[in-house]
Every structure is written in C-alpha cells, then in structure tokens.
Amino acid sequence: xxxxxxxxxxxxxxxxxxxxxxxxxxxxxxxxxxxxxxxxxxxxxxxxxxxxxxxxxxxxxxxxxxxxxxxxxxxxxxxxxxxxxxxxxxxxxxxxxxxxxxxxxxxxxxxxxxxxxxxxxxxxxxxxxxxxxxxxxxxxxxxxxxxxxxxxxxxxxxxxxxxxxxxxxxxxxxxxxxxxxxxxxxxxxxxxxxxxxxxxxxxxxxxxxxxxxxxxxxxxxxxxxxxxxxxxxxxxxxxxxxxxxxxxxxxxxxxxxxxxxxxxxxx
Length: 267
What we know:
This protein is mainly β. Helix content is 11%, strand content 37%. It has three helices and 16 strands. The chain has helices at residues 3-14, 25-28, 231-243; strands at residues 21-22, 29-33, 38-41, 46-51, 57-61, 68-75, 84-91, 99-105, 114-120, 129-132, 142-148, 152-157, 160-166, 182-189, 209-219, 245-248. Strands 1, 3, 4, 6, 11, 12, 13 and 15 form an eight-stranded antiparallel beta sheet that branches. The longest helix has 13 residues, at 231-243. It starts with a helix and ends in a 19-residue tail after the last strand.
C-alpha cells in the first residue's frame, strides 16, 4: 500500500488533523471511570487521576488513531508509590486487539519507578521490556511519546528513544497496522504484582495517590509516515538499552526454553 493510501486511512480515522494538534482534555478525552477521582482543570489544559483504597480512575480519547506520533506529559505519583500502576497506552477493540503500552510501576520512596513496555498484535502480547529511568518521574512533568507508523513503533521519553519494535511481517511476526486505537490512561492499585512481584504493598496512609497530565499532542502530518531512526537516535537507544534496561523478553531463557520469538533475532 502506497503512502497516499496510508494518508487516506489516517484521515479517515484521525479526521485529517493539522500538522500538530495540541489537545484540550475537555475536547479530546472522556473520564470513563473513578466516580469523580479523575478531574480536568485550567480550561482543559491539566488532567489528574486519583487512587484511594476504594477506587482508581481513568480516561480515554474520543477519537481513534491509525498511525501517528502521540505525546503526553506526565508527572507520576510522588514519594511512596509502591503498589500503584499508572498505565498510558493505545488499544483497539475486539478479541484480536492491538495495543501499545507504557506502564509505570510504583516503588518505595527513594527507589526508581519501573517503566514497563509491551506491544500486542492480534490479541497476542508477551513482548515486555522494562527500564529504570535516569531521573525521578514524579518530581516534574516529562514527555512520553509513541511514534507508530507502518514500519515501526518507537517508545520515547523526553525525545530519547527507549524501545523500537519493527514491522517484521516478512518473517511472520504480526504488526499492528490495520486497527485504529484509542488512547487510554488509568491509575490503579496492583499491589499483588506491581512492586517486587507483590512483596511490597500499597501504603494507604499515603492516599490519595495522584498522577498528572498535560500537553497532549497528536502529530497528524505526513512526516511521521516513513520516519526512521537516524544515527543519533540509534546511539541514544543503544545507551538506554545498555544502561537502563532491566528486563528484555528476548533474553529470558527460562520463559522461552524452546527458543525466542522470531523478532528477537532482529530487535
């Protein structure tokens, strides 16, 4: 399929966005659960999610997106965030859904967050990579981005790529490319597994826990359609993988005793 066809598909699902569309949370998102624990402030420029012992909260985009570059600035739960998970992801509907995940697993004060990434295609995931960031993501806002085009998915933090998932359909690896996805985010309690495998539980005396969002943007220009990793970003990606990756499914021999998934030979 040519780039013109992809452009037509993008227009169909995204609404032929301008080159960069800066989002207003009131216009772009619906708070979908949490019974008032999700709130929008500052004329749609700031959104917060809260978690207490009774419930978390979440929101989703009104529009679906098929390819594009999506940015969101997040400030995660500060101090003792053990047991909490802030999820920020794209997902399609149905039993053979596609999904592109950022999840931020909380930790005790003074210990790093774990950034958990995953890619689902046709309902199959199990492609986890995890990282510790080079800063405290709960002190200030930082930009978390997904570049999704027909050739690759790139996860970035403050413009620095931390993961690339290439389209390897040529060797039989499914790739998300046909199903438009909505953007979702939620803050919820997962102390049965989130921190040290569930050993550290949520300290409800610290509640309510709050994650904050601002400066949502969708790049709907054609520039992203064939965008590749230049040499500078390849070096940055290598630096992140060498210094900050803490788990890679492609090296987990206990999990895959019969051999790694096909994409592991390339990624």
